[in-house]
Amino acid sequence: MPKSFIPAALVCGLMFAMAPILIANAPYESTMGLVQKIFYVHLPSAWMFLLGAIIGGIASVRYLFRGDPRQDRLAWAAAELVVLFGAITLVTGPLWARKAWGVWWQWDVRLTASLMGWMVAVAYMLLRKFGGPGSDKLAAGLALFGMANVPFVYISVNYWRTIHPTTNVVPTLPTSFGVPLWFSAATFLLLFMLLLRMRIRLEEQRARVDALYLSMDA
Amino acid sequence: MFAHIVWLVLRKDFTIEVRSLEIAYTTLFFAISCVLVFAFALVQEGRAPEGGAAGILWIAIAFSGTLALGRTFERERQAETLRALLLAPAARPAVYVGKLLGIVVLLLAAELVLVPLVALLFQAALFAHPIWLALILLTGTIGFAAVGTLFAAMLVRARSRDVLLPVLLYPITVPVIIAGVRATGALVAPEFDAGVLRVWLALLVCFDVVFLTLALWTFEPLMTD
C-alpha cells in the first residue's frame, strides 16, 4: 500500500462528506437559488489558486538566490496546482456568472487578472517541458512575475468598480452560509497539501533515479 | 560607474546596429506589414472600425517588439558575446539597463513610423494631444521592454527560444498592453476625458516600477550559471 493512501482516503472521505452538507444543509440563497452553491467550490479553489501562486513565487525566489533544488521541486509542484485549481476556478466562475450576471464572461479586472495568472502558470509548464537544460532558473523568474499578479487579483475588486463580488462578502456571511464555506475551504486546503506533497515526492524520486543513472555511467 | 557601464553597453549595441541596420529595418518593415494586414482585414469600404486604432497600434508594437527582442539577443548568442558581456567586471543590473535602453530606443523609433501610419489608415486623431500620447507610448514601451529584455536574455540558453519568448512574454505583459490600449483609446475618443487617461497612465507607471524592480532584482541570479 503506498504511503499516501491513508491521507488520500481521509481527504476523499471529507470531500464526500462535504457534498451532503452543501446540497442539503446550506440554505438556498434568496435570489440565485441552487446556482449559489457553486460558490462553495469556486471560492475555495480560487484561494488555492492564489495560494499556489504565492508558494510557487516564494519557493522560486529561494531557489534563485540559494540554489536549493528542493525549492525548485516545490515551485514546480505548486505551479501544477495553480493550473489545476485555476482551471476549476475559471470553469465554475462562468457557470455562476451565467446565472448571476446573464453572461458567461465579462472583461472585468479580476477575471482578466485571474486568467492571466492562470496563463502564466501554463506558460511555466510549457517552459519546464520544452525549455531544455537551464530552463529551471528561467521558470523561477517566470513564477516570480506570476506571484506579482496575486495581490492584483485580490485587491482589484475593491479598487475598481467591477461586477465581481468584493472581498468584504466573506466576513459578513451568516453562519448558515459560513460554516459550509469554511468546511469546504478546509477540505480544499487538505487536498492542496496532499497533492503538493505527492507531486514533490514524485519529483524527488525522479531526481534520485537521475542521480543513480549518472552514478552508473561514472 | 553604473551610468558609465549602461552607456558603454548602449553605445556598443548602437555601433553594431548602425553598421547594418538589420534589426531596425526588419522590425520596422514587420510593424508596417502588421498594420497593413489589419487595415486589409478591418477597413471596409473606406471606413475604419470605430475605436480600433488604439488596439491595432499596441498589437503592432507588441509583435514587432517581440521580433526585435529575439533578434537582439540572437545576435549576442551567435558569437557567444553575451557570455563575454557577463564575464566583464561590470554590475549585471547595469548591463540589463543598457540592453533595455537599446530596445526602448529601437521601439520608440519604430513607433515614430507606426503612429502616423495608424492615424492615417484608421482615421484616428492620435496627434490631438501629442504630449499625452508621448507619455503613454514611453511608459508602455518601457513596461513591455522591461519584461521582454529579461526574458529574452534568459532564453538565450534555452531550447526552442523563438517559440517560448512570445509564450512567456504575452501573459505577463498583457496588463501593460491593456493599460496602453485603454489610455490611447481615451486619447482618441470623440470626447477627450483626461481623468480616465490619467488613471490608465498611473497604472502604466505602476507596472513599469513593479516590472523594473523585479527585473533588476532577479537579473543577476538568473544570468548566473
Instruction: Figure out the total of helices of chain A.
Output: 6
Structural class of chain A, by secondary structure, is: mainly alpha
Question: How big a fraction of the residues of chain A is strand?
Answer: under 5%
Radius of gyration of chain B: 18 Å
How many β-strands of chain A, per DSSP?
Answer: 0
Low-confidence stretches of chain A: none
- What kind of sheet is the major sheet of chain A? none
Uncertain residue segments of chain B: none
Supply Rg of chain A: 19 Å
Oligomer: heterodimer
Compute the separation of the termini of chain A in Å. 34 Å
Written account of the structure:
The complex is a heterodimer of chains A (218) and B (225). Chain A is built from six helices and no strands. Chain A is an all-alpha fold. Chain A has one domain (34-217). Chain A is globular and about 70 Å long. With 225 residues, chain B is mainly α. Chain B has one domain. Chain B has helices at residues 2-20, 22-42, 53-78, 81-87, 92-121, 130-155, 161-188, 194-222. The longest helix of chain B is centred in the middle third of the chain and has 30 residues, at 92-121. Chain B is globular. The two termini of chain B are 25 Å apart. The model of chain B has no long low-confidence stretch (mean pLDDT 89). The interface between A and B is medium-sized, with 27 and 25 residues.
Task: Provide keyphrases for this structure.
heterodimer; A: 218 residues; mainly alpha; 0% strand; globular; B: 225 residues; 83% helix
